[in-house]
Amino acid sequence: MKKLVLVLTVAMSLVAFTACKEKFPTPGDSFKAWMTAIEKCDVAGIKGGLTAESVEQLTQISEQLKNFAQKPEGQAEDFDIFKEMCKGFSKAGGMEVISETVSPDNKDEARVVYKTNGKENSAPMVRTEKGWAIDMARMMKEAMQAQMEKMKAMAPPPAPEGAPEAAPAPEGAPAAEGAAPAPEAAPAAEAPAPAPAAAPAPAAEAAPATQN
User: Fold this and answer.
1) CA distance 125 to 95
2) 118-155: pLDDT as tens digits
3) Is 141 helix (H, G, I), strand (E, B) or coil?
4) Rounded CA separation 162/147 (Å)
5) pTM, rounded to two decimals
6) pLDDT at 166
7) Are 48 and 37 in contact, with CB atoms under 8 Å apart?
8) 115 close to 104: Cβ distance less than 8 angstroms
9) Strand-pair partners of 121
10) Alpha-carbon distances, residue 11 vs 1, 25, 125 (angstroms)
11) List of domains in the chain
């Protein structure tokens, strides 16, 4: 009896596992099913289409963002990042699957190329026990790396080593590049000493009086 129960349990597990594989046999099918869950804002379906690591990271982010979400006074915090994903999907106008590619090096990894807002993107997929799931954790990491590379490309190049530093411009109008510095003004000449005053002429002696 125990053996029969064990066999039935294993058989039911295999049937459930095979049904899941047949329901979404390809990465593209799984991604489309996930999009349907997004359209309906089916939180359970959204989580079910993601890897366990992705759900864990998104849940942590949701808890952290609750502290920054502004809610009316007296209203309980109900921020849910999975519901916010539904809103973002609505604003984007939907997604369209373009292609899917299974990695030649690892048959349990794939890429699904999709289009949203007229722009193509790709989502990494991983084969799990439940079937193909979106690796959102890796997707966020790749987006962060791309943003850092973009910022690095926009940064000005560093000055070459050994280059002389530019001389500071004098106060006032900026000096023209390459112009020689203006010579310093010569010191003012001292004023000439005043000429000595002319000595007074000696008075003429009176002529002696003549005798009669």
Assistant:
1) 16
2) 889 999 999 998 899 999 999 999 988 988 888 888 88
3) helix
4) 32
5) 0.59
6) 60
7) yes
8) no
9) 114
10) 15, 20, 28
11) 26-153 (3.10.450.50)
Distance CA 23, CA 29 (A): 8
DSSP reduced 3-state for 97: strand
H-type alpha helices, 24-135: 27-40, 43-48, 52-65, 81-92
Rounded CA separation 176/179 (Å): 5
Number of residues that this document lists for the chain: 212
Q: Provide the phi-psi class of 156: left if phi over 0, else alpha when psi is between -120 and 50, else beta.
A: beta
The answer to whether 98 and 114 are in contact (CB under 8 A) is yes
Q: How far apart are alpha carbons 168 and 135 in whole angstroms?
A: 55
Residue 84: is it exposed, middle or buried by C-beta count within 10 angstroms (0-12/13-18/19+)?
Answer: middle
Q: For residue 99, what are the contacts with CB-CB under 8 A and spacing of at least 6?
A: 28, 112, 113
CB-CB contact of 123 with 145 (8 Å): no
Q: Which residues contact 88 (CB under 8 A, 6 or more apart)?
A: none
pLDDT digits (tens, 9 = 90+) for 61-70: 888 887 776 5
